[in-house]
Design goal:
CATH architecture of the largest domain: Sandwich
Number of strands: 12
Distance between the termini: 35 Å
Number of helices: 9
Largest sheet: 4 strands, antiparallel
Shape: globular
CATH topology of the largest domain: Jelly Rolls
Order of helices and strands: HHEEEEEEHEEHHHEEHHEEH
Length: 228
C-alpha cells in the first residue's frame, strides 16, 4: 500500500510525516476475517492497535449472558488503542459485521512511533477527544424520541463511513438488533422506524447487496437535529 493511500484512508494518519507512514506500512500485519468473527476479545490483554481497511465491525460489551453493541466502526477507523495506552485488559469485544480487512501494529511499535512523530501523537489525541464528544452527544439524546435518536445514528454512520452516491450516502446494512443497541432503543422501535423511513423514500434497504442508501440525507439530518 502506498503512503498516500494509507493517509487518505485513515484520518488518524493524515498529519503523519512520510517517514512515519512508510515505517507503519512496513511493520503492519494484514488480517482478513469473515462476517461474525471475533477480532479481539474482552479481557484479553491489548497487544496491538487495529486499522479498518475495508468492512464493518461492532464493538460490544458482555453483560451477564448477553452481549450489547456499543458502537459500529467502518473503513478508516481504528480500535484497540485504549488497551495498549493504559496497559490493561480490553474492556470490549470487536466482532466483524461483514468481511473485514484490517492492519494491526504491535503495541511496542505503535507506542514507539507516537513518541517519534508529535503530529501523529497530537492527531490521536484529537480523535480520542472527538469520540468523547460523540459519547456526550449520545447522552444528551437519551431523552429524545426514538426516531430522532435513530436518525442521529444513521447520519453519524453516513458522515463517518458512508460512500458518496449521487442520491446520498451508502452504508452497510447493519442488523436492526445492533442498530437498536447502539441507539439505545428497542428492536421493535428500530424496525418500525426503519420501515417508515423506507416507505417515505428517505432510505433504501438493499438486502441483496447488504447496503442501506441514505437517500434523503438532508431530511435525516434535520430529523436528527443536525444542521446541514
Amino acid at each position: 500500500m502506498q503512503t498516500e493511500v494509507f493517509s487518505d484512508i485513515f484520518p488518524l494518519l493524515s498529519t503523519a510525516n512520510p517517514q512515519t507512514l512508510e515505517w507503519l506500512i512496513n511493520v503492519a500485519t494484514e488480517h482478513e476475517y469473515p462476517a461474525g468473527r471475533a477480532v479481539v476479545m474482552e479481557d484479553a490483554w491489548g497487544n496491538a492497535v487495529y486499522f479498518i481497511v475495508t468492512g464493518w465491525v461492532k464493538v460490544r460489551r458482555t453483560c451477564g449472558d448477553h452481549a450489547v453493541a456499543l458502537a459500529i466502526l467502518g473503513r478508516g477507523d481504528f480500535f484497540g488503542e485504549m488497551a495498549i495506552l493504559d496497559e490493561s485488559p480490553r474492556s470490549t469485544d470487536v466482532v466483524s459485521l461483514s468481511t473485514v480487512k484490517l492492519l494491526s501494529i504491535s503495541r511496542e511499535r505503535f507506542i514507539q512511533i507516537l513518541f517519534k512523530d508529535p503530529q501523529l501523537h497530537h492527531r490521536m489525541l484529537q480523535l480520542m477527544v472527538r469520540r468523547l464528544r460523540q459519547i456526550n452527544q449520545r447522552l444528551q439524546l437519551r431523552s429524545s424520541p426514538p426516531a430522532v435518536k435513530l436518525a442521529h445514528t444513521l447520519v453519524s454512520l453516513g458522515e463517518s463511513y458512508g460512500y458518496e452516491l449521487d442520491t446520498g450516502k451508502e452504508i452497510f446494512n447493519i442488523p436492526f438488533k445492533d442498530l437498536a443497541e447502539v441507539t439505545e432503543i428497542s428492536l421493535e422501535e428500530t424496525t418500525k422506524i426503519m420501515e417508515k423511513l423506507h416507505e417515505k423514500g428517505w432510505i433504501k434497504i438493499d438486502n441483496a447487496n447488504s447496503t442501506i442508501e441514505l437517500i434523503n440525507f438532508k431530511h435525516l439530518m434535520n430529523l436528527a437535529g443536525k444542521v446541514g
